[in-house]
């Protein structure tokens, strides 16, 4: 699943695809790079993001969805608003990706039941302003599973067919880094529920923190097996630089995203949602070749 943010303030690529023609061109490029579907959103859901009026959200995304679907692209709409979701479906989108989590609205349930489209149910607590303060879990895997099952029951009670439901553990939504990793390691708690599972780790904070910690553990001058010293931060062999590595920016997390994507696929994920489709598609191609060879 390739990410197409038609927003000015997304954490990774805000403002890059606000122009409809630029957005469509990027969506087509995602497909050429290997995306099976493109997830189009018009509202940033990063922590601290300002809410967007649904009418503005629709103005951003509907022209893009129409043009992509006219070119045969399978599109999901990334929205928490039932009116936007319905308009996007009318424009050609085939999947609703809703990160509202505990704020799931009855109008959304009615829409999904009435239209019969696939629906991605994401675990989340609070909104962009409050989610970080709600990242408190005694057992994140068990609690996320239980809360998703509660939301699933609301969908079933509202007439949604179980076959429509895709589960997403909501990495980064009211989660801290250790909690994100525990959810990934415990993905079978969700894949075992009989629904497809989406993993959306791309460029998220927990990857940046993990990479920064790994780089901080590096000791300049450590010996490689062949006896050559590793370079320091300046690139000089065996140097004594002591500067602490900075947290890698969002784009610098694409290799880590591809690694998570491979591990998620091996754990049974239905799809991975990513910004850099080519990196992940290549990594998954290697994983498939390894598996075919008996690895």
Describe this structure in words.
The protein is an alpha/beta fold. The protein has a domain at 1-66 and 73-80. Helices cover 42% and strands 9% of the residues. It contains ten helices and eight strands. It has helices at residues 20-32, 54-70, 82-91, 106-115, 140-157, 177-185, 188-191, 205-217, 254-266, 277-292, and strands at 2-5, 38-41, 75-78, 95-98, 119-122, 165-168, 198-199, 271-272. A six-stranded parallel sheet has the order 1-2-3-4-5-6, covered by helices on one side. A two-stranded parallel sheet has the order 7-8. Helix 4 links the parallel strand 4 (95-98) and strand 5 (119-122). Helix 1 (20-32) packs across helix 2 (54-70). The protein is globular and about 55 Å long. The relative contact order is 0.11. The model is unreliable at 227-242 (pLDDT under 50).
Rg, Cα atoms, Å = 20 Å
If strands are numbered along the chain, what order do they take across the biggest sheet? 1-2-3-4-5-6
Secondary structure class reads alpha/beta
Sheet of most strands: 6 strands, parallel
GO molecular function: dihydropteroate synthase activity; metal ion binding
EC number: 2.5.1.15
Catalytic activity: (7,8-dihydropterin-6-yl)methyl diphosphate + 4-aminobenzoate = 7,8-dihydropteroate + diphosphate
Cofactor: Mg(2+)
């Amino acid at each position: 699943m390739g990410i197409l943010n038609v927003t000015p303030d997304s954490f990774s690529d805000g403002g890059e695809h606000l122009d409809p023609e630029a957005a469509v061109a990027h969506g087509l490029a995602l497909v050429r790079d290997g995306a099976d579907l493109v997830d189009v959103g018009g509202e940033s859901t990063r922590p601290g993001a300002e809410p967007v009026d649904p009418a503005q959200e629709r103005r951003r995304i509907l022209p893009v969805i129409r043009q992509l679907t006219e070119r045969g692209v399978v599109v999901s709409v990334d929205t928490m608003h039932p009116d936007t979701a319905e308009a996007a479906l009318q424009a050609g989108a085939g999947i609703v990706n809703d990160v509202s989590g505990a704020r799931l609205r009855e109008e959304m349930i009615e829409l999904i039941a009435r239209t019969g489209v696939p629906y991605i149910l994401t675990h989340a607590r609070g909104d962009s302003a409050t989610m970080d303060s709600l990242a408190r879990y005694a057992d994140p895997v068990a609690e996320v599973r239980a809360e998703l099952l509660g939301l699933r029951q609301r969908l079933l009670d509202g007439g949604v067919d179980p076959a429509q439901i895709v589960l997403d553990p909501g990495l980064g939504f009211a989660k801290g880094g250790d909690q994100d990793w525990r959810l990934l390691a415990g993905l079978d708690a969700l894949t075992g529920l009989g629904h497809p599972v989406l993993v959306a780790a791309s460029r998220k904070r927990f990857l940046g923190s993990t990479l920064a910690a790994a780089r901080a553990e590096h000791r300049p001058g450590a010996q490689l097996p062949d006896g050559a010293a590793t370079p320091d931060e300046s690139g000089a062999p065996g140097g004594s630089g002591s500067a602490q590595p900075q947290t890698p920016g969002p784009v610098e997390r694409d290799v880590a995203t591809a690694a998570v994507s491979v591990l998620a696929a091996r754990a049974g994920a239905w799809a991975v949602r990513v910004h850099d489709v080519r990196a992940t598609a290549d990594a998954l191609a290697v994983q498939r070749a390894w598996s075919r060879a008996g690895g």
